[in-house]
Predict the 3D structure of the following.
Amino acid sequence: MNQLPTSKRRTTSPHPAMIARRVAVTQCASPEVEAPPGSTDVVTGPIAVPRHVIDGGEIILLAIKPSMWRPVFDALPCLLTCAALIAVVLWREFPLPGLSMTATVQMIFLIVGVRLGIAIVRWVPTWHMLTNRRLINIQGVRAPRVSSCPLKGICNASLTASPLEKITHLGTISFETTPQEGPLGQWESIACPNEVCDAIKRAVHEASLR
């Protein structure tokens, strides 16, 4: 795993979920951190990148994690179901068979904790990267699953937002790719979505001119 050096820059509004970096991986020098317009208090930390992900001389322009709201969104159906179940149990005073009221509520809270914990574990290793050549998605808990698409294979990048993402000022970026490249996964629950989408479109345009 290549450890990319990091730095810290204060700008104007906190977006801790976003890390913007420009670094030649082959040199492992201190990177020049470029925060998207409108982002503030951008703090960068070490990113463990599998050796086979970055080509020699490839430059990472953006390295972004989904917002910390993403695990909550993923676990929300379970959270709502458990909340309704607790309300019914307390209102009807009807515990699960063989359990007391206290044990029943504790069991439901345990289910909530496990589901939210699974969502957090899946969120931790998730990274989205924009380089001068490709878009890269890294996911996977036990072993990283890497998918990528050359910038020249991107036809369009569009921005949408679910009701929850609108409330939390996040967005999801979807990509249209050429038939030769196949589909590329969405970048979900991204902070500063407009700036990130614009950065991707600029990189795609520049790649088309090369």
